[in-house]
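User: Please fill in residues for this 694-position structure.
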């Protein structure tokens, strides 16, 4: 037999419940894999229905349509003479499983259910699926009638088994199983499996990619073998961006790397590898071989097929490569930009509208849209017909070719500076200059008339006229007047999003972009139903610190010189009256804490699972050089008081790109009450007791 096997993996931009589009992308990936000589093709987790179906998994329709897609795949000539490994939900004995369906030449070889389900953070797989708990056990699965008619099979193996071809042995993992402490690849490798496959639905988090790569490489470093990973990519209908990074590794080294961010709906990696390299690598690991001699064997499904060719001595094999990781600033530039593009084209809208204040947050959001325009122009230049077709539909021009990011930006991006009597000329100028440099269609307007009209209604009804603190009003009056301005801006943003293109004689409407960062959301430093209330928010999962670094990156890489003055200006809401024409209000003074402190609080609260007392205990050591225990106690108490008072705002938070593991997103990532006892009496008393002891 031959020794050089050619295998393919892919990253597909699948969309929840888009069975038509998902099938087309699967077919395309199989065609590419076969054209490059692959004899085995691996796809992402649940690729047939799309990973993000959520409670639609409960519906029998989802199961039915998944089998209908499988029927199309099985009967197609495109899937002949290549082992295809696809993902879909399967109901076995009235229990729903997350499965791999592996087939060859119109015959299903094995249905392999997922053993370890992802159930942390954004993942809720235990809500919809049951893990397969019968290790190394296989049962008969009775196929639906529509599949029986294609395959001629009544039953197929269902369970924890491996495939044996004429030349090698393959074993499957599914996403979370790679991350589990008792990953199946360990025992499978000891039992002679030489090729491990992993079908993932793994989403982007800043600074996470290296962890996935390290896990894949370490899986074969200790045990030898070939590891093939497929992943979903793109926005499949919610807050997550699945970031591709399909890869192939052998004996602890990467041999093929897919892109983390791109606008290509289908990306296929193919590698030819020498099985003898695996065998010789394993031969000298005596500890592995001793363990292998005692391993409990897996059920084996025999496959009359080879992944290699008989005469392959001269076939070139792939060599190890060095994985290139993106910097966090590059990740912010590319990930949210690709997510925005998917959202724009799939929502069938005509562009975005952003209230551009001239501050760091809205400017960073504008830069992400500008980066999206760069990605679109680059994809079209590289011959991506899908992107070109989407761009033409969005701008309503069948002959249009996006070549200049600034020109394309003007067609799809509207920015709006909403001035009030409390706005400075500096922020107005900064917003205008940035809009000019990125090319957006920019609007300047004044909201004072609308604000006075709303406050006037209140005065007519009550006979009282609220005043700002600087004019002798109470804090309640001042806050209410600030909130009116903020909420008027939200109303106007939606009005202009719906009618700006109409006023310009163009079809369609615009999606409103929000620009509240993760730290402000955590603290609740935003007005409920202000401009943070939008359709989507590309920076809602990104910290202020990372956004500042991203602004510097854009300044250097996009030559947006307007960002220089934006970076140097202190963050301000500009909702209180100016003093001598200058801004007197700053965000950090308003919040009573710095953005750097907020990031630390956020990571301790969410990632370290620290309540008030535990956070205090950690911070007295972290901050021992700069704060006394009593000062730390005061800071921790103030944070938790403000966090709990404002937690209700998270229930209406605009859907945001998920980028940080300390996001306070109330939808499904950070599940907490929104009505707290904000005195935290017991917890704070424990802190006080410790302070007194110290």
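Assistant: Residues filled in for all 694 positions:
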């Amino acid at each position: 037999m031959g020794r050089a096997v050619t295998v393919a993996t892919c990253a597909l931009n699948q969309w929840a419940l888009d069975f038509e589009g998902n099938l087309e992308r699967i077919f395309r990936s199989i065609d590419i894999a076969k054209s490059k000589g692959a004899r085995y093709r691996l796809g992402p987790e649940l690729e047939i229905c799309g990973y993000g179906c959520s409670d639609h998994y409960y519906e029998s329709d989802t199961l039915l349509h998944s089998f209908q897609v499988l029927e199309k795949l099985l009967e197609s000539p495109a899937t002949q003479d290549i082992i295809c490994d696809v993902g879909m939900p399967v109901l076995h004995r009235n229990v729903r499983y997350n499965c791999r369906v592996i087939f060859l030449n119109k015959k299903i070889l094995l249905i392999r259910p997922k053993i370890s389900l992802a159930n942390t953070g954004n993942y809720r797989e235990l809500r919809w699926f049951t893990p397969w708990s019968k290790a190394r056990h296989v049962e008969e699965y009775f196929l639906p009638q529509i599949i029986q008619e294609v395959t001629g099979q009544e039953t197929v193996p269902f369970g924890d088994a491996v495939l044996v071809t004429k030349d090698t042995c393959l074993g499957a993992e599914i996403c979370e199983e790679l991350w589990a402490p008792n990953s199946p690849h360990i025992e499978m490798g000891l039992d002679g499996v030489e090729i491990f496959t992993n079908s993932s639905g793994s989403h982007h988090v800043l600074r996470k990619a290296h962890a996935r790569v390290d896990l894949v490489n370490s899986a074969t470093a200790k045990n030898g073998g070939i590891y093939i990973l497929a992943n979903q990519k793109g926005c499949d209908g919610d807050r997550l961006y699945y970031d591709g990074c399909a890869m192939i590794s052998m004996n602890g080294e990467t041999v093929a790397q897919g892109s983390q961010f791109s606008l290509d709906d289908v990306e296929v990696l193919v590698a030819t590898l020498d099985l003898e390299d695996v065998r010789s690598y394993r031969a000298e690991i005596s500890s592995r071989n001793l363990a292998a001699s005692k391993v409990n064997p897996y059920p084996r499904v025999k496959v009359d097929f080879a992944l290699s060719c008989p005469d392959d001595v001269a076939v070139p094999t792939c060599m190890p490569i060095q994985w290139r990781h993106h910097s966090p600033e590059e990740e912010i530039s590319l990930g949210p930009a690709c997510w925005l593009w998917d959202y724009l084209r799939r929502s069938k809208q005509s562009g975005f509208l952003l209230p551009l204040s001239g501050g760091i947050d809205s400017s960073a959001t504008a830069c992400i849209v500008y980066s999206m325009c760069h990605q679109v122009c680059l994809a079209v230049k590289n011959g991506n017909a899908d992107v070109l077709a989407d761009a033409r539909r969005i701008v309503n021009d069948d002959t249009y070719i996006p070549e200049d990011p600034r020109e394309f930006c003007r067609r799809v991006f509207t920015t709006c500076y909403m001035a009030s009597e409390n706005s400075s000329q500096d922020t107005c100028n900064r917003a205008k200059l940035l809009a000019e440099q990125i090319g957006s269609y920019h609007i300047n307007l004044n909201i004072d008339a609308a604000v006075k009209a709303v406050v006037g209604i209140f005065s007519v009804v009550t006979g009282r006229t609220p005043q700002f603190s600087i004019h002798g009003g109470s804090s309640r009056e001042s806050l209410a007047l600030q909130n009116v301005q903020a909420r008027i801006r939200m109303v106007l943003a939606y009005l202009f999003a719906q009618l700006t293109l109409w006023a310009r004689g163009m079809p369609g409407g615009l999606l409103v972009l929000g620009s509240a960062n993760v730290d402000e959301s955590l603290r609740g430093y935003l007005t409920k139903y202000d401009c943070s209330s939008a359709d989507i928010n590309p920076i809602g999962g990104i910290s202020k610190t990372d956004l500042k670094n991203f602004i510097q990156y854009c300044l250097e890489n996009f030559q947006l010189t307007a960002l220089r003055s934006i970076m140097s200006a202190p963050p301000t809401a500009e909702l209180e009256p100016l003093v001598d024409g200058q801004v007197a209000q700053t965000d950090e003074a308003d919040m009573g804490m710095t953005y750097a402190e907020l990031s630390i609080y956020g990571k301790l609260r969410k990632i370290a699972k620290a309540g008030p007392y535990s956070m205090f205990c950690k911070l007295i050591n972290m901050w021992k050089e700069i704060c006394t225990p009593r000062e730390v106690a005061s800071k921790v108490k103030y944070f938790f008081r403000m966090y709990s008072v404002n937690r209700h705002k998270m229930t209406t938070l605009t859907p945001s790109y998920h980028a940080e593991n300390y996001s306070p997103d109330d939808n499904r990532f950070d599940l907490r009450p929104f009505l707290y006892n904000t005195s935290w009496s017991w917890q704070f008393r424990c802190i006080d007791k410790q302070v007194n002891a110290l």
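For context: The mean pLDDT is 95.
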